[in-house]
Write a structure and sequence with these properties.
This protein has one helix and 32 strands. It is mainly beta and 359 residues long. The protein folds into three domains: 157 residues, no CATH class; 94 residues, Immunoglobulin-like, CATH 2.60.40.10; 79 residues, Sandwich (Immunoglobulin-like). β22 and β23 form a beta hairpin.
C-alpha cells in the first residue's frame, strides 16, 4: 500500500504541471511601460511566472533584466512591439533547467526585439550564450539571423530582431509555424488586395486573415490553407472586396501550426482614398513623433491619436483652429521608438497611417 506521502507528492507534482501555462505581460497602466524581470506578474494569474511557463512580452512592454545571474526554467515569446532589454553592464539571463539540452526556446515575432549595449550582457539558453551586447558576436545587417548564422548574435545597435526562433544551438526555424517574408496590400478592382510570402512552412496548418476598422477589434474574414512545402518560396493573395471609400482597414495574419500554436503578423493598413485627403509625413520618423500634416482646408478641430499595433492609445492630442496647408505637429511628450498607427479625425474626414519612430 502506498503511503499518504506518496499521494501527497503526486498531488503536488500534478498541481505544478497544471500551473505551467502562458504568462502574458501587459502594462498595468499606460502603455508603453518598463517592468523589471523580477517584478513581472502574469495577466492570467496575477502572480509571478512559474517553472514551465512561456513568458509573453506584449506590445508596448519593455522587460528589463537587471541581475548578473538571472535564470528562468521556461520559454520566452516577444510579440510585435515588445522588448527584452539588458540596460546595464553585466546583466545576464539564462533560460535553463540547469543542464544542456534543456529544451528551452525564445521566439521573437516580427516587430519584437532584444537589446543590450554592453559586451558583458549575455542571453543564454541551456547555459549556451545566444546573444551578447557586443564584441565577439554576429552583427548581421540582414537582421534577424537565419540558418547558418552561428551564435552569439549581437544585441547592441538596433538589437536582435524578429521574426526568429532560437534554441541553445541558435536559429531553429522549426519553432515557427512559418517564416513570413512579406505582408502587403494594394488597391485592386475597387477592393484591397492582400499579398504575403513565406520562405518556409514546416509543420504548418493554415492562415486566418483578420481585419478591423478601428485597429483594435479584429474579425476573421478568410481561412487559407498553407502549402506546407517545407523550405521554399510560397505566395498567397486575397481580395477584400466591398470596402468603402475613405474608410481604413487594418489587417493581420494569424499563422497557425499543426499543433495549434500560433503567431500574429504585423498589422498593415489599407484605404480606398478620397480626394482632398489629409497627408501625413514622414512615416519613417526620427523625431519622437514630430510630423508634417497637410490639411486640404481650414479645420476648426482635429483629434490626433497614436495607437500601438495592439490598438492601445499611446498618445492623444486635440488641435484647434488649423489653417489650410502645412501644419507642423510636435507631440507634447516624445513617443518612444516603436511602430504606431496614427489617426487624425475631423468633423469631415478621418485618415490613418502606419508610422515607425526610430532612435
Amino acid at each position: 500500500m502506498k503511503s499518504p506521502y506518496y499521494f501527497t507528492f503526486l498531488f503536488i507534482l500534478f498541481t505544478c504541471q497544471l500551473k505551467a501555462q502562458n504568462c502574458t505581460i501587459y502594462c498595468s497602466d499606460a502603455s508603453p511601460c518598463t517592468i523589471d524581470w523580477d517584478n513581472m506578474l502574469c495577466d492570467e494569474t496575477g502572480s509571478a511566472p512559474v517553472v514551465g511557463d512561456e513568458i509573453i512580452i506584449t506590445d508596448g512592454v519593455t522587460v528589463e533584466v537587471t541581475d548578473n545571474n538571472e535564470a528562468f526554467n521556461g520559454n520566452l515569446r516577444i510579440e510585435s512591439g515588445g522588448i527584452l532589454d539588458f540596460p546595464s553592464s553585466s546583466d545576464k539571463l539564462d533560460l535553463t533547467n540547469g543542464s544542456s539540452g534543456c529544451g528551452r526556446s525564445i521566439i521573437i515575432e516580427s516587430g519584437g526585439k532584444i537589446t543590450g549595449g554592453s559586451a558583458s550582457n549575455q542571453l543564454r539558453i541551456c547555459g549556451t550564450t545566444i546573444g551578447k551586447g557586443g564584441g565577439g558576436c554576429i552583427d548581421d545587417p540582414a537582421d534577424p539571423p537565419s540558418i547558418g548564422d552561428s551564435p552569439p548574435y549581437c544585441l547592441d545597435g538596433n538589437g536582435l530582431n524578429g521574426e526568429v526562433g532560437l534554441d541553445e544551438n541558435g536559429v531553429n526555424t522549426g519553432l515557427l509555424p512559418i517564416e513570413l517574408v512579406s505582408f502587403s496590400r494594394e488597391h485592386k478592382n475597387g477592393g484591397i488586395m492582400l499579398n504575403w510570402t513565406t520562405a518556409s512552412e514546416i509543420n504548418f496548418s493554415h492562415f486566418e486573415l483578420h481585419y478591423s476598422t478601428d485597429g483594435y477589434q479584429f474579425k476573421k474574414i478568410a481561412q487559407i490553407q498553407g502549402k506546407n512545402l517545407g523550405t521554399g518560396r510560397n505566395e498567397y493573395t486575397f481580395l477584400h472586396s466591398n470596402v468603402l471609400s475613405g474608410n481604413h482597414y487594418y489587417y493581420r495574419l494569424k499563422n497557425i501550426d499543426l499543433d495549434s500554436t500560433y503567431s500574429y503578423s504585423k498589422v498593415i493598413v489599407g484605404t480606398i482614398s478620397n480626394k482632398k485627403k489629409i497627408d501625413i509625413f514622414p512615416t519613417y520618423n526620427k523625431h519622437g513623433g514630430q510630423l508634417s500634416l497637410n490639411f486640404p482646408q481650414k479645420t476648426e478641430k482635429a483629434e490626433v491619436f497614436f495607437y500601438t499595433l495592439s490598438g492601445r492609445i499611446a498618445y492623444n492630442e486635440i488641435l484647434e483652429n488649423i489653417s489650410k496647408g502645412l501644419y507642423q505637429f510636435h507631440p507634447k511628450s516624445a513617443l518612444k521608438p516603436n511602430s504606431y498607427i496614427i489617426e487624425i479625425i475631423t468633423d469631415k474626414k478621418q485618415v490613418t497611417r502606419s508610422i515607425i519612430i526610430i532612435e
